[in-house]
Amino acid sequence: MNFFMTFIKKITPKLLSSQAREEAGGRDYRRLRQLLFFTMLLIAWGPALLISLLSYQNYVSLLQTEEQAQIKWRLDGSVGSLTAMIDNVKSVVYFISINDTFQDLTEDGNIDSLLALIKQQYNFIADIGVIDDTGIQQAYSGPYGLYGEDYSREDWLEIVTKKGLYISQVYLGHRKVPHFAIAVSSYDPIRQKLWILRATINATSLEKIVQTIKTKASEDLFLIDDNNIIQTASTIFGPPLSKYDPDILHPSNKNNSATHAHSLYAIGKIINSPWSLVLIEKKYLAHKQWTSFCTRLFLILSACLLTSTAVVYAIACALKDLIRKTDDIQIALLQEAEHTDKLASIGRLAAGVGHEINNPLAIVNQKNGLAEDLLSLSPDFEHRAAISKCLKSIDQNIERCKTITHRLLGFARRGEVELREVQINDIIRDVLSFLENSIMYSKINLVLRLEGGLPDVYGNNVQLQQVFLNIINNAIDATPDDGNITITTHLLAEEVQIIIQDTGEGISKEYLPHIFEPFFTTKETGKGTGLGLSITYGLVKKMGGDIIVQSHIGGGTAFTITIPALGKNEEN
């Protein structure tokens, strides 16, 4: 990238140098077009070639994501089946503990009959036992001869006593055979003591249950506990009570075998049990899909490179023409800036003149007042009425000149913007007093519909004058002779709304979205800077208001300005 930028910096000055302009009568646009073409071609080809190099990894990643979603879906089904099986066994044990008493189950032969009955439905249950509150097994039915066994030191005894239910991990226990137990505690009202009903299932039986939900797509399916101890036999990790190490399946593992290096696995927690189900499947990379993908990628890449070359060449030519036009516009903008600077200087000069005029006006006003006082004290004479009328006329014109100079100074004054209570109708009348000659000379009919009693708004007098001056000036420029400019003010939903509408040619729909953009103008070259409406939009927004424009060709243009009334603006 640094090399590319250095290359651009070295080449560009040569193309835009004054020597090149002198030789070619301006910029060397042919060499500029070549530079643009090769630069954009490099930018266009680079990402396409990079994408083609990364496509293999991205496609494999997509396949793996899809396969992972499939294995997760199958895992959820398997977890649901195991959860249902465990819930069924828990329900049976619960039902027995509720419907049979401690005395019934500890009588001779009753527990054997109960186990035989249970095995008709759940033949995977290995044995069943009744344990009293001291931890001694008082009744037992099963192949391991555990009658009278002492479980008082077992951790699970305290857990089932407190929680009422306990499902153990697979462990060896007294029988030295991998198994797990489901124990339920119940209260004996005769003995007024707790007793426990305990059913066990061997790990081999649990493994058979797991294998029944294993599909052909599954490479391995087994249970682990919260400590990553295998609960049922695994073809990869070994028999029950072995350690489960998921790193064996990771491709970066050096001890990984080729068989399991490309395997996917997922783990799902079995609700209300200490187990999680692990499902492992081999990855499936579809050869036909991959070949089809590569073929399509090559064709698309070739088409993109050829198309981008043609498009880049066309864009380079268009940019060259655009730069040529931009040079012309730049010269015009410089001339416009010169003109704007002259106008600013004239404005400052006018402000100075207005300030200087105020002083002699004050003297004339004073002398005129003195003449009026002397006239009132003098006796009556022949031309007294005519002289009095002249003095009043002088006084009226002095007031008019003072008003004009004060407004002129107000427009030219710069400084910090001070917001205060202002009356919209008064500001509109002040602006129109400046523009009355322009409106009269343009033969435009001015229609004022200013609603009386409007509430004040919170804004800046000078800024609002500038807003209305910009919009009304544009309306004067757009309105033909004998056209109408209508200015309407009214209160709408605690907001003062000002509508300035003209009967000009209107603005095209394609220009309306850009009307408030800086330097955008629909006027002829040299007649506008494109900044007036942009500044107007910013000033209205700064005062918490909004401005919209509606226009269509042949139907004129209407600007609607909305400014919150004083009460609402104070809340904002």
From TrEMBL:
Q: GO terms for molecular function, please?
A: ATP binding; phosphorelay sensor kinase activity
- Which Gene3D superfamilies does the record associate with it? 1.10.287.130, Histidine kinase-like ATPase, C-terminal domain, PAS domain
As recorded in UniProt, its EC number(s) are: 2.7.13.3
Report the enzyme's class at the first EC level: transferase
Q: Name one Pfam family in it.
A: HATPase_c
Q: Where is the Histidine kinase domain?
A: 352-567
Which residues are listed as membrane-spanning? Answer: 35-56, 297-319
Name the chemical reaction catalysed here: ATP + protein L-histidine = ADP + protein N-phospho-L-histidine
Q: Which residues form a coiled coil?
A: none
Q: Which domain of life is it from?
A: Bacteria
SMART domains the record matches: HATPase_c, HisKA
The alphabetized UniProt keywords are: ATP-binding, Kinase, Membrane, Nucleotide-binding, Phosphoprotein, Transferase, Transmembrane, Transmembrane helix, Two-component regulatory system
Q: By what name is this protein known?
A: histidine kinase
